[in-house]
Amino acid sequence: VVFSADEASNIIKECVDSIIGGIDYNHSKINQWTAAVVEQSLMHLVKMGKPFKYIVTCAIMQKSGAGLHTASSCYWDSSTDGSCTVRWENRTMYCVISVFAVSIML
Amino acid sequence: MLLSRAASIPIAIPLVVVTGAGLRVTMDEFQSGEEAVENTIGGNAYQHNKVNQWTSTVVEHCLNQLTKLAKPFKYIVTCVIMQKNGAGLHTASSCFWDNSVDGSCTVRWENKTMYCIVSIFGLGV
């Protein structure tokens, strides 16, 4: 079974829209939001029932002119494992979610 | 193999966060991350035209060091570099894996002009 980045990407986008869709950056709620995004995304991914271990990371940054760069590198089996990254933004914040899926050999 | 949810980890203040009940991800992995960051951006100030190069270099060096450890792990390394500008940045991660063999660690580094956060996830094979 190969990881489907498109399917994962759609799932993530729906999760983020439902959690921080029309909301402005709010310092006191942000921890809650990042936790909710990763937990719900993970739940939906696991529900697909595929033989993968998952790692979901989420970074939310306030729009204030600062520069932010991210990179990732993976040492795995490229025939079965994969990742996908979703970049999302609204008026006041950026959200970058990465999903890494590692195949379980049965 | 029993798969279960590891707790969500909001990455904020601590310098080192090592998780995973098996703790097979150890200080070796943490040191790989730290060295990679120090050697790449050690004495430098934030420079917009170099940041892409820096993030790539940090993850590559880190992964090289990790593979040299020759442990039976698949690794995922992520690096975030952010300019110090007063903006708020929050990250979290959640993992669905085997708690007895898998784990992660996070290195948080800063200097006067930027923050650098490196996360290393190790999955047992």
UniProtKB/TrEMBL annotation, chain A:
One of its GO terms (biological process) is microtubule-based movement. It is found in: Chromosome, Centromere, Kinetochore; Cytoplasm, Cytoskeleton; Nucleus. Signal peptide: none annotated. It comes from the Eukaryota. Pfam families: Tctex-1 (PF03645). Keywords: Cell cycle, Cell division, Centromere, Chromosome, Cytoplasm, Cytoskeleton, Dynein, Kinetochore, Microtubule, Mitosis, Motor protein, Nitration, Nucleus, Transport. One of its GO terms (molecular function) is dynein intermediate chain binding. The keyword Nucleus applies. InterPro entries: Tctex-1-like, Tctex-1-like_sf. Its main location: nucleus. GO terms for cellular component: cytoplasm; cytoplasmic dynein complex; kinetochore; microtubule; nucleus. Belongs to the dynein light chain Tctex-type family. Homodimer. The cytoplasmic dynein 1 complex consists of two catalytic heavy chains (HCs) and a number of non-catalytic subunits presented by intermediate chains (ICs), light intermediate chains (LICs) and light chains (LCs); the composition seems to vary in respect to the IC, LIC and LC composition. The heavy chain homodimer serves as a scaffold for the probable homodimeric assembly of the respective non-catalytic subunits. The ICs and LICs bind directly to the HC dimer and the LCs assemble on the IC dimer. DYNLT1 and DYNLT3 compete for association with dynein IC (DYNC1I1 or DYNC1I2). Acts as one of several non-catalytic accessory components of the cytoplasmic dynein 1 complex that are thought to be involved in linking dynein to cargos and to adapter proteins that regulate dynein function. Cytoplasmic dynein 1 acts as a motor for the intracellular retrograde motility of vesicles and organelles along microtubules. Probably binds BUB3 as part of transport cargo. Required for the efficient progression through mitosis. This is Dynein light chain Tctex-type 1. It comes from Scyliorhinus torazame (Cloudy catshark).
